[in-house]
Specification:
Layout (H helix, E strand, L loop, with lengths): L1 E5 L13 H8 L7 E6 L3 E7 L16
Antiparallel strand pairs: 1-3, 2-3
Length: 66
Amino acid sequence: MFAAIFSRAQSPPVGELADGATLVSALAPFSQPDAKGEWQSEKALIVQAVWHNTPESLQEIAPEVC
């Protein structure tokens, strides 16, 4: 699962709006993900939460980087 906040040119930096832990807790209100990660710049915050539910998912990392 992914969640993101993007800030426009005249908006405050995303660090003033939320942090990665807040977004991850919104993605996973009932259980902690097996892997989680975040990427942040001044105008964007993106988080990823991963639950291992298949053998292939054991190899997933968070955040996924292309």
